[in-house]
Structure prediction request, 200 residues.
Amino acid sequence: MNPIELNSGDAFLIIDMQLDFLPGGALGVPNGDQVIAPINRLTELFARQGLPVVASRDWHPDNHCSFAARGGPWPPHCVADTEGAAFSAELKLPAGTTVVSKADTADADAYSAFNGTDLAQQLRGRGVRRVVVGGLATDYCVLNTVLDARELGFEVIIVEEAMRAVDVAPGDGERAIERMAGLGARVARLDEFAGLAAHA
Ligand code: VGL
Ligand code: ZN
Prediction:
């Protein structure tokens, strides 16, 4: 595969790298911590070229409809302004990172970072045509963000080492990747990015 060269028009979307989605968190994604280092390498690449970095966060009120107490599928997680909703301290976000909060009202959930946010306008306003996507979780928020990105006309590259799945049913993560690829997302590995190739 040809190396991926980053250029103006590219942005990095980091999905929901919050303590509650990391091992030990309220809704810890298995091995979710393994994506931190790959994401940091990508962030550095984008920052070095002055390209936009966007970090989304799940930002729920404490009576959110996705919580079990209200008949939703999940334990309480990512309650706004709590420790569990904070980004991992190991995540290196450059100055100027755009933070996008989603699902911040009680009665609506949003897996996609585009859903109910101004992310599309922000990206278009900065001339973004292609997004590189990593984060948590492959089978929920990454998947739904990528589906919307494709529908909105953005080119998409997803990075395998930079995402992990909840896998409520075994294979959910693999199926999510197949769906994203089927919609035209390029499935890349870290060393396909010019500047991140492993040196022999
Ligand atoms: C997510 C489950 C519930 C995610 C958010 O960020 O993938 N998953 N809320
Ligand atoms: Zn949530």
